[in-house]
Amino acid sequence: MMEKADPSQNLYTRMRLWEFPDQYVVEPTDGSRGSCLEISRMDGSMKLIDDVPECSSVRVPKIRTIFGVIGTLKLLAGSYLLVITERECVGSYFGHPIFKVSSMKYFPCDHSLKNSPAEQKNMEAQFLALLNVAERTPGLYFSYDVNLTLSAQRLHDLGDESKLLSLWRQADPRFLWNNYMMEVMIDKKLDPFLLPVVQGSFHNFQSAIGKDIIDVTLIARRCNRRTGTRMWRRGADSDGFVANFVESEQIIQLKGYTASFVQVRGSIPLLWNQIVDLTYKPKFEIVRIIEAPRVVERHYLDLRKKYGNVLSIDLVNKHGGEGHLSEKFANAMQHVVGEDVKYLHFDFHHICGHVHFERLSILYDQIEDFFIKNRYFLLNEKGEKVELQLGVVRTNCIDCLDRTNVTQSMLGRKMLEFQLRRLGIFDAEETISSHPNLDESFKIFWANHGDDISIQYSGTPALKGDFVRYGHRTAQGILSDGWNALTRYYLNNFVDGTKQDAVDLLQGNYILSVSRDMKPSSQKGGIETKASFLLALALIMVGLFFAMLSLRKVRYDLRNLLYAMVWASISLGIAAFVKANGRMFCNRPSLHQSKR
Fold first, then answer.
1. Using CA atoms, how far apart are residues 400 and 397, in angstroms rounded to an integer?
2. What region holds the SAC domain (predicted)?
3. How far lies 64's CA from each of 11, 17, 54, 109, 142, in Å?
4. 156 within 8 A of 1, measured Cβ to Cβ
5. 27, CA 20 to 30 Å: which among 55, 91, 192, 328?
6. Is the pLDDT of residue 511 over 70?
7. 347 HSE (CA, 13 A, CB side)
8. What tens digit of pLDDT does each residue of 65-108 get?
9. CA 557 to CA 420: how far, in whole Å?
10. Where does 235-283 show beta strands of DSSP type E?
């Protein structure tokens, strides 16, 4: 299916990093006869050199193997080189190996920092702390041979000339995680070192259906236009780019045929946010509501250009804060709904509750016509196009994680059954459920996909994942949901602000500038408030534990009902105090940054 890129544009797959006192040298060691890359440790400047400089007693280098250069980042007093130090092969994409970043590390080019003022040194140290957070970025994938940013349909539609370009030149910039960090290397025309990296998910399994072997792949591609963490990136920006926008592509290969089905998810495309204040569910705030029609129109115009027809499924509650947000969304959608854009509200919690997710069949019955008419991408044994996917289903809830993943897994299952009938593997009434091995693999497949996307946005695996994984709700799954919800609450209030700063730094959303009033922020308050919160949280959990323990003994002694009420009251009292003092706990030091 894919033509190999021009050999002169091939990426280096293994390199040796030489750490000299005054420079770094990246030497290809994969058998390529290319030049070495020299990076100055004084100012981060780069150039190609023919050979590694000679070592001496005063220039003894450290040496390590690396598997890719992600890019460089400019801070206040120096530049920093980010490289891949460990990788793991997780499968293949059209015959080409796909790797997951297991470990990455930054190397400072900041010798000029020695002559910087003390305040600037202190600020640089704070930004370096953000780079330490960035080193732990989850869900990064890459290939040296094939463009992971493009779906199978878009890969096939590349022109002959485009197929000969470097991978970064072919890439969809929306899904190029290191787009900003590659800018300096792009300017220097360092194509063999320019490795495109995607944030998302990659899973693959094979299963037997009779005598046939089906190969199934599921890829998530996270958009970099409004990336970030759950409570710190909500809604859309003024250009219509939304938070947690992810393209999910399900690909099957069977009997020489290749079929691909693409879905997308993304936050409600209004200008809205939730300010963390230690409440479990902060108030939804819609800003500049007068701009809503224009923002929604821009968002769906972009979707139509990239995917064709659009069916937008809104899964949020009809009442309460979610209902108010959904109402404004529905009103704004009136300006864009037409032949090529459809909108459907489906109150997931009202219809399915917390356990009856099989009622999603009600939703499918309402969208089946769009689903079938807009098809999927299909290649025959000769690599010729047989079908094109003409439209996309866009699904959202509030976080676009839990309800969304349950819904998307249902649509992926329906499409796989549809494709298997088309290829003559299934008869008209046959389903995935009638093949236990395929059914189990498919459930685990989508559950892992949802967990990956959720961890990147919220810090925890997806809720309701037990239904996706097992086909029904379980007691352990409900308990896990409670724990993950509590963990999200903690991360939202005390961790994700810093993580958001790290994301913004890596994506170039802010360019750092030196100002005269820069003063390092004290960390003491942050530690004290975090410790206070942890103590309060522990007391609440202890109270709830004893309340539940007492309730279980009520049938033996009614006095336990009184004990349960006392313990529950203590927990609620502490929670009320924490909520009332939310500002004290949730202060987040702001960074001195200028919008890019």
1. 5
2. 131-459
3. 19, 5, 17, 17, 20
4. yes
5. 91
6. no
7. 13
8. 999 999 999 888 788 999 999 999 999 999 999 999 999 999 99
9. 59
10. 246-254, 257-265, 272-274
Of 512 and 489, more confident: 489
Of residues 547 and 61, more confidence is placed in 61
Burial of residue 120 (CB within 10 Å: 0-12, 13-18, 19+) is middle
d(CA 181, CA 170): 17
State the sign of the Cα–Cα–Cα–Cα dihedral 581, 583, 588, 589.
Answer: negative
Band of pLDDT at residue 435, cut at 50, 70 and 90: very high
Compute the distance between CA of residue 291 and CA of residue 285 in angstroms, rounded to an integer. 14
Residue 558 burial class via C-beta count within 10 angstroms: exposed 0-12, middle 13-18, buried 19 and up = exposed
Beta bridge partners of 25: 18, 38
The span from the CA of 303 to the CA of 301, in Å, is: 5
Report pLDDT for 545: 66
Evaluate whether 85 touches 64 at the Cβ level (below 8 Å): yes
CA distance 548 to 546: 5
Nearest CA to 98 out of 152, 165, 144, 154 is that of 144
pLDDT per position as a tens digit, 534-543: 666 666 666 6
Q: What is the pLDDT of residues 146-201, one digit of tens each?
A: 999 999 999 999 988 888 899 999 999 999 999 999 999 999 999 999 999 999 99
For residue 111, which of 25, 47, 21 has the smallest C-alpha distance?
21
